[in-house]
Amino acid sequence: MAHVPVLLNEVLETLAPREGQIMIDATVGGGGHGIPIARRLSPGGTFIGIDWDEKRLKELREAIGQEVLDLEKLILVCSNYADLVDVLEREGIGKVNGLLIDLGFSSDQLGEGKGFAFKGKEEPLAMTYSDYDTPLYQILGTLGERQIAEIIKDLSDERYAGRIAKAIVLERKKSPIVTNHDLAKVVRGAVPKNYEGGRIDPATRTFMAFRIYANRELENLGRILGGLTEIVRSGGRAVIISYHSKEDAMVKHFFKDLAEKGEAILISKKAIKPTDLEVKQNPRSRSAKLRAIEIK
Ligand SMILES: C[S@@+](CC[C@H](N)C(=O)[O-])C[C@H]1O[C@@H](n2cnc3c(N)ncnc32)[C@H](O)[C@@H]1O
C-alpha cells in the first residue's frame, strides 16, 4: 500500500513554507510531505531531502522530476539525519527556515526485502533503513537472553518480553533466526494463545522494538535534537512527528527545556494529533503526535 503522509495539513500550516525559503525534510521517504513543501518554496527556494534508505531517494528523484519546480537548489542526500549538521556543512547550507522529521518507517518499505513486516513475503531479517548497517539477523546472534528481554521490554513494553527472549535463544540453538517469518514464528509460539484478545499480532511489539534497536532510533533522535539550534535559524521552525511514546517524551522534554532556557517558543503546548477522519482514512496515523517549536 502506498504511503500516505500523516498530518500533512498540520505540517504545512506549521512550517508555512514560502517562496525563496530553505527547508529540510530529514525523513523525506516518498516525498509525501517533502514534495508539497518543495512546491511552496518555489520559485527560488532550497529544498533538502534526507533519507537513510537509498531506494526512497531513487524513487523520490523520479517523482520530483515530474514536478515543475523552480528551486534555486534541490539537494537529496542519503544519510542518517543524526549527521545533519555535517551534511549541511558539506553542502554549504547555513541555517534553515524549517525542518521536518517524520519518524519511523514508511509503508513503502514493507515487503521490499528489509524484513520490517511480520506478515507477507518471507525476507531476510535485515530491519535496517540503510543497506550498509548491520542486519538484525547478525545482531541477534550476538545478544544474550537478558539483553534481548531488556530490548523488547524497554522499547515496546511487551509484557511477555522474558518468554520471547527465552524462546529466541532456544530456537537459535536449533537453527539461526534469519528471516522475518523465523522471528514472527518464535514470538507467536512464545506468548499465550489469547494474546491481547487477538487484537494485535503477537509479533507487532517485538518487531517494533528490534527495528528501533537495530537502527539506534532513540540515539539518532537525541543527536538531531542536540543539533537543532545549529540547524534552524532564529524565527525558523522545527516539526517532529513521532509514533512511539519514548520518542514523543524525548521531543516533549527537549522542546520544553529549550523554551524554558528562552531559546525557543512552543508552537502548541500539547501534541497535535490526527483527527478521527484522518485515522479512519489512514489507520497508520493513529499513534502520531506532532510537536513544533520556533527558534528564538
Ligand atoms: C515515516 S517515513 C517518512 C515518510 C514521508 N514523510 C512521507 O510522507 O512520504 C520515515 C522515513 O525516514 C527514514 N529514516 C528513518 N530513520 C532515518 C534516519 N536516521 N535518517 C534518515 N532517514 C531515516 C525511513 O527510511 C523512512 O523513509
UniProtKB/TrEMBL annotation:
Species assigned in the record: Candidatus Colwellbacteria bacterium CG10_big_fil_rev_8_21_14_0_10_42_22
Write down the superkingdom of origin.
Bacteria
Single GO molecular function: rRNA (cytosine-N4-)-methyltransferase activity
State the name under which the record lists this protein: Ribosomal RNA small subunit methyltransferase H
Q: Write down the top EC class of this protein.
A: transferase
Gene Ontology biological process terms in this record: rRNA base methylation
Q: Give the record's keywords alphabetically.
A: Cytoplasm, Methyltransferase, rRNA processing, S-adenosyl-L-methionine, Transferase
One Pfam family named in its UniProt record: Methyltransf_5
Naming one, the record's GO cellular component terms include: cytoplasm
UniProt similarity note? Belongs to the methyltransferase superfamily. RsmH family.
Q: InterPro entries from the entry?
A: RsmH, SAM-dep_MeTrfase_MraW_recog, SAM-dependent_MTases_sf
What is the documented function of this protein? Specifically methylates the N4 position of cytidine in position 1402 (C1402) of 16S rRNA.
Question: Where is it localised?
Answer: Cytoplasm
**Amino-acid positions noted as binding S-adenosyl-L-methionine in the UniProt annotation, renumbered to this chain:** 31-33, 51, 81, 102, 109
Catalytic activity reported = cytidine(1402) in 16S rRNA + S-adenosyl-L-methionine = N(4)-methylcytidine(1402) in 16S rRNA + S-adenosyl-L-homocysteine + H(+)
PANTHER family (alphabetical): 12S RRNA N4-METHYLCYTIDINE METHYLTRANSFERASE, S-ADENOSYL-METHYLTRANSFERASE MRAW
- EC no. given is 2.1.1.199
